[in-house]
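Something for you to look into today, if you have time. What I am after is a single protein written out in full by you. I want to see for myself how the chain folds. Could you add the entry underneath, on a fresh line?
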Amino acid sequence: MIVGNGYGGHDDYVDGKVIEDPGRVRYLNQHLLNLEEAIKDGCEILGYTWWGPIDIVSAGTGEMRKRYGFIYGDKDNKGNGILDRVKKPSFDWYQKIIETNDAVLHDEEALEDVREKYEEQ
């Protein structure tokens, strides 16, 4: 069972839009591809969970700057923000992975479509 896997990045919220999180999308995709290989090699994988689907305050430092979620939480280290929740590109990518039962992991065109969707907004 793999629990608490995630990618911490410095995602920003500008004019009501979340700046892309391509590093998180690539990280997620590569980790799931590696899990697929591990299963083919005989490893028993019982489950996989992502660390922090929604951006959360760091338990260790109390900071919000480093974010792990697929959903942006509008709050900064000083407590400023209105707590809006905004989907990031990684949200759509993870949703697509689940909907296709991971078939989309090998589809570079689908990966590019997620990125382009957010550039157009």
